[in-house]
């Protein structure tokens, strides 16, 4: 373990992150909301801390090893959430505790969208902007951004990219050099954000709301500048929901496909990808069932409203964005549970979505089908294929290992949440919503998480981090074998 190299990288990353606290200062000045000082103080504390970490070891330059990459990713996300909480803690509006501040920061950076803040409409614009910016930075991963920058400082980044990028196919690079890959991802991410913001603005949002919601839409985050979330705009501007549906769907697709489609000047890469086709089919089926059930139960007055709200909510939950147009947890029958279960699948690997990822679900189903065939033909050699490509047993085993650890972690955290005094529905859905980086749950966490006690919030912070880093990256640090020389 190269501790000095790790310390140097963390110091540099903290200094870089400190500058993200300056845009809210400009927002505060522009709107004269009186919230400048919390961000200035947070910037200074973060920058000075990063400098103190970096300066003594600034001459220690070496290539990162795989273990170093895991340590940097986990430590940086943990430390980043702490320093990202400073503006919330120092602000008079909202006035929240240390636990709540870290919870809000962790929720933003992991693009979970679970919030402990109510009365959003009355908050300073700078605070609202900062929440959205946290999600945008966390969407593609601050580490991937750093991979594009740090090589210029003499630091290799492939290990960081492998530790941070989600999905079982993550070692496939879009370009020969990892730096160019990271830049390509960010160009696509930035382009989608700009297109989304302009579309929201044309559809009827104010400039501030359009930018804020573009950040959280493309990041699959779900934070909003209003307590009613997207429901704030639904009555007057239904076109806004249509824009949100389109960009949530696009952001849930593997960004490698966006890159390939751009490079080939056509949509053929999408239609040739198995994961994309399954992703589209799942969302289409969920949207159809949700819309039909809402109309059949007369939850809304017209078929048009039932379809629009049903499609919006299915795509929002299915991609783990977490926007709401109404209190979906109060919808009739099986809908709330069905939608929550949909979040376990989540978006595609290589997207900003959460959940287990569509490709893993596809592999699990194909492996299950193979085991059934083996009962009929015990001696047959039956490969697991995705598209026309046979997968190695190593990949299939990794997916099963991920699923097993996912279930175990989910059950343990759910039991802990019940032990804190929550009812089963609230505990189950809170862990599911945080581990899948979804946000809104059922029961007492349908609207926000203010009613959860401090112990429960720390458990849910761990669940968010576990989901964002996809189990293995975090749990590997808890094994004795990782720390042996």
- Count of beta strands: 2
Mean pLDDT: 87
What proportion strand? under 5%
The general outline is globular
Bin the helical content. 55-70%
Strand order of the largest sheet: 1-2
How many helical stretches?
A: 24
Largest sheet: 2 strands, antiparallel
State the order of secondary-structure elements, H for helix, E for strand.
Answer: HHHHHHHHHHHHHHHHHHHEEHHHHH
Task: Specify the structural class.
Answer: mainly alpha
- Outline the low-pLDDT stretches: none
What value does the Rg take, in angstroms?
A: 22 Å
End-to-end distance, in Å?
8 Å
Key words describing this protein structure:
485 residues, mainly alpha, two-stranded antiparallel ribbon, 24 helices, globular
Topology:
Elements (H helix, E strand, L loop, with lengths): L2 H16 L4 H9 L4 H19 L11 H19 L1 H5 L7 H12 L15 H16 L1 H8 L8 H7 L13 H26 L3 H12 L12 H4 L3 H14 L3 H10 L3 H4 L2 H23 L6 H16 L16 H11 L12 H19 L8 E2 L2 E2 L2 H27 L4 H12 L18 H15 L3 H4 L4 H4 L2
Antiparallel strand pairs: 1-2
What does this structure look like?
The chain has helices spanning 3-18, 23-31, 36-54, 66-84, 86-90, 98-109, 125-140, 142-149, 158-164, 178-203, 207-218, 231-234, 238-251, 255-264, 268-271, 274-296, 303-318, 335-345, 358-376, 393-419, 424-435, 454-468, 472-475, 480-483, and strands at 385-386, 389-390. Helices cover 64% and strands 1% of the residues. The relative contact order is 0.10.
């Amino acid at each position: 373990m190269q501790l000095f190299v790790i310390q140097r990288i963390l110091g540099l990353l903290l200094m870089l992150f400190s500058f993200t606290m300056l845009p809210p200062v400009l927002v505060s000045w522009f709107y004269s909301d009186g919230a400048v000082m919390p961000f200035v103080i947070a910037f200074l504390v973060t920058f000075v801390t990063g400098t103190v970490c970096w300066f003594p070891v600034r001459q220690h330059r070496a290539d990162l090893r795989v273990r170093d990459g895991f340590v940097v990713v986990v430590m940086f996300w943990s430390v980043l959430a702490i320093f990202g909480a400073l503006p919330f803690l120092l602000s008079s509006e909202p006035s929240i505790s240390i636990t709540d501040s870290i919870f809000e920061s962790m929720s933003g950076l992991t693009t979970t969208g679970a919030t402990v803040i109510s009365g959003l409409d009355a908050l300073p614009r700078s605070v609202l902007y900062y929440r959205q910016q946290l999600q945008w930075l966390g969407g593609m991963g601050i580490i991937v951004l750093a991979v594009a920058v740090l090589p210029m400082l003499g630091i290799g980044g492939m290990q960081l990219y492998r530790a941070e990028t989600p999905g079982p196919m993550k070692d496939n690079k879009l370009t020969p050099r990892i730096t160019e890959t990271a830049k390509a991802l960010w160009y696509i991410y930035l382009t989608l954000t700009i297109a989304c913001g302009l579309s929201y603005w044309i559809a009827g949002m104010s400039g501030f709301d359009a930018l804020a919601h573009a950040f959280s839409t493309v990041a699959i985050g779900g934070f909003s500048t209003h307590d009613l979330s997207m429901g704030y705009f639904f009555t007057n501007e239904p076109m806004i929901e249509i824009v949100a549906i389109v960009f949530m769907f696009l952001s849930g697709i593997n960004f490698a496909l966006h890159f390939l489609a751009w490079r080939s000047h056509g949509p053929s890469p999408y239609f040739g990808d198995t994961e994309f086709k399954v992703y589209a089919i799942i969302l289409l089926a969920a949207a159809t069932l949700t819309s039909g059930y809402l109309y059949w139960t007369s939850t809304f007055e017209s078929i048009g409203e039932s379809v629009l709200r049903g499609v919006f909510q299915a795509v929002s939950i299915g991609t783990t964005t977490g926007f709401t147009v109404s209190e979906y947890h109060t919808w009739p029958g099986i809908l709330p549970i069905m939608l929550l279960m949909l979040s376990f699948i989540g978006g595609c690997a290589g997207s900003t979505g959460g959940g287990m990822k569509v490709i893993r679900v596809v592999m699990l189903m194909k492996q299950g089908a193979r085991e059934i065939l083996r009962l009929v033909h015990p001696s047959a050699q039956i490969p697991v294929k995705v598209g026309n490509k046979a997968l190695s047993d190593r990949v299939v085993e990794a997916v099963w290992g991920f699923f097993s650890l996912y279930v175990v972690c989910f059950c343990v955290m759910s039991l802990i949440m019940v032990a804190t005094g929550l009812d089963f529905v609230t505990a189950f859905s809170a862990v599911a919503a945080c581990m899948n980086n979804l946000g809104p749950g059922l029961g007492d966490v349908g609207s926000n998480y203010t009613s959860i006690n401090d112990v429960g919030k720390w458990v849910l912070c761990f669940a968010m981090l576990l989901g964002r880093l996809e189990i293995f990256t975090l749990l590997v640090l808890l094994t004795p074998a990782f720390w042996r020389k």
